From TrEMBL:
Domain Rhodanese intervals: 18-125
Gene3D superfamilies found in the cross-reference section: Rhodanese-like domain
Name the UniProt record assigns to this protein: Rhodanese domain-containing protein
Entry-linked InterPro entries: Rhodanese-like_dom (IPR001763), Rhodanese-like_dom_sf (IPR036873), STR4-like (IPR044240)
Pfam families in UniProt: Rhodanese
Amino acid sequence: MNYAGDITPEQAWEILTDNPDAVLVDVRTEGEWATIGVPDTSSVERPSHFIEWVDNTGARNPEFGAELAKALGDRPEDAPVLFICRSGQRSAHAANLATAAGIAPSYNVLDGFEGGPDAFGQRGSSGWRAVGLPWRQA
């Protein structure tokens, strides 16, 4: 089963702004949240959840599905769930898993929080933070 689709950070922000039931799930590692920062959805009063897809060693979190179900609790059945990671790859996997578990619509945020590496191997030229969406240091 495939997730609902890939959306840009701007489209994700629009969904979060327009839909009071929408939630954002950041699937990066605790280390990434602490050192790179996190999306800040407080201005639109939407919840953000932080659930590691993998840990700092790269091992997949076997409890991801259970942690996600617990975090989402009693959300309305059709409330959008937006998944974000560093560049949009882990979040695509998370959106697929969520969809397979009946959590839909689930979306992947393209380019994630800081995008993939550029020609110089540096991140930060694309993604949530680069387009000027709200973020904060964790």
